[in-house]
């Protein structure tokens, strides 16, 4: 049985570190022992040489929860660190499912809070309202400074005044942090990380990639309820296109149909992740149904899928967590960014790191990328010319 919800954290917790994830991920650390106050200022005793207890609060989206759990796993490998991961009741139920969690070790524990925000499934219906609902503890970390980004690769802000206000607020707030922890790593984004360290008054730590190493035998050890790993085992090496466009934002209905049509026209085997049952049925209808050429499932252990030898490409929305996992797995990407940092990540993938192909340049006048262009790009990614 899941533990009882934790409705109130200990009054002596304070925010210690803040790090990436739209709109908010937190690590709290127990406050130092208080000494006598002088005037309006409190004095704190030195840190005792006792184990450090961290509280991690990930933003409730699949990629963000996975990245936080992997970071917690790395931190808890130290003998002096214990971690409590606080998630919503909905997410605790998902994480308690069989094979949902990696081995986090004995010093990582979970507690639940009520579902204080809407379910992941409907959260994107009004993004401005969602962001406003988290204002009392909002931490953003979208910081300019990446030298390789062109103006055309940045998300337009003039069309959404509320979103522009949030972005400007994020830029102002970041200087108040005690430190910045990035889930990226120095070798991947040395220019951007160097620019941040030069610009910001607080330390900047590149702690990534926060991805657990998986031995080959571990990849086969955990069963999956939808049979996707067994299906991948039966496919030829490098033949499957993994398709997952994130759990938070979505493409238009027209673009959705064009993607499914492009998958079908390419004749490439695919594994597609869609949480919504109606969307899964629609893809099966548009691609001919059956599991011979493709499989549509509600959830996957993404890192295990990307590291599977049958997977030869990843059709992605360019979320940073997915991007880092794909770089780790060595899988080429077909990119379709939607919002936030995704266009910037797309630029890095397609033109700087050269680890994938970008679809955005192929859009029609209405912004929709046709199935013919998608099919051609899939074939180019999965069947490159010799």
UniProtKB/TrEMBL annotation:
<keyword id="KW-0808">Transferase</keyword>
<dbReference type="InterPro" id="IPR035595">
    <property type="entry name" value="UDP_glycos_trans_CS"/>
</dbReference>
<dbReference type="InterPro" id="IPR002213">
    <property type="entry name" value="UDP_glucos_trans"/>
</dbReference>
<comment type="similarity">
    <text>Belongs to the UDP-glycosyltransferase family.</text>
</comment>
<protein>
    <submittedName>
        <fullName>Uncharacterized protein</fullName>
    </submittedName>
</protein>
<dbReference type="GO" id="GO:0008194">
    <property type="term" value="F:UDP-glycosyltransferase activity"/>
</dbReference>
<keyword id="KW-0328">Glycosyltransferase</keyword>
<dbReference type="Pfam" id="PF00201">
    <property type="entry name" value="UDPGT"/>
</dbReference>
């Amino acid at each position: 049985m899941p533990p009882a919800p934790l409705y109130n954290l200990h009054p002596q917790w304070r925010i210690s570190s803040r790090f990436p994830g739209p709109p908010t991920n937190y690590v709290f650390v127990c406050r130092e022992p208080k000494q006598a106050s002088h005037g309006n200022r409190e004095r704190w005793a030195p840190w005792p040489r006792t184990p450090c207890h961290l509280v991690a609060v990930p933003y409730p989206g699949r990629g963000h929860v996975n990245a936080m759990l992997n970071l917690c796993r790395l931190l808890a490998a130290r003998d002096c660190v214990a971690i409590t991961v606080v998630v919503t009741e909905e997410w605790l139920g998902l994480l308690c499912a069989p094979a949902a969690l990696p081995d986090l070790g004995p010093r990582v524990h979970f507690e639940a809070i009520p579902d204080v925000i809407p379910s992941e499934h409907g959260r994107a219906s009004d993004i401005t309202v969602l962001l406003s609902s988290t204002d009392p503890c909002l931490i953003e970390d979208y910081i300019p400074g990446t030298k390789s980004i062109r103006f055309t690769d940045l998300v337009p802000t003039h069309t959404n005044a509320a979103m522009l206000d949030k972005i400007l607020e994020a830029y102002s707030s970041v200087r108040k942090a005690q430190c910045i922890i990035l889930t990226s790593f120095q070798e991947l984004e040395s220019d951007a990380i160097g620019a941040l360290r030069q610009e910001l008054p607080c330390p900047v730590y590149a702690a990534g990639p926060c991805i657990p190493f998986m031995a080959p035998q571990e990849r086969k050890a955990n069963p999956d309820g939808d049979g996707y790993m067994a299906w991948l085992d039966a496919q030829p090496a490098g033949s499957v296109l993994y398709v997952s466009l994130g759990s938070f934002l979505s493409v238009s209905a027209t673009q959705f149909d064009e993607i499914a049509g492009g998958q079908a026209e390419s004749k490439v085997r695919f594994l597609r992740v869609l949480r919504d049952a109606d969307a899964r049925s629609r893809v099966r209808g548009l691609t001919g149904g059956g599991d011979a050429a493709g499989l549509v499932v509600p959830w996957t252990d993404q890192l295990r899928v990307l590291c599977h030898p049958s997977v030869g490409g990843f059709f992605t929305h360019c979320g940073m967590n997915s991007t880092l996992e794909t770089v780790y797995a060595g899988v080429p990407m077909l990119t379709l960014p939607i919002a936030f940092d995704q266009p910037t990540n797309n630029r890095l993938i397609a033109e700087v790191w050269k680890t994938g192909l970008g679809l955005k340049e192929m859009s029609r006048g209405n912004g929709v990328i046709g199935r013919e262009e998608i099919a051609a790009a899939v074939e180019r990614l999965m069947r490159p010319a010799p």
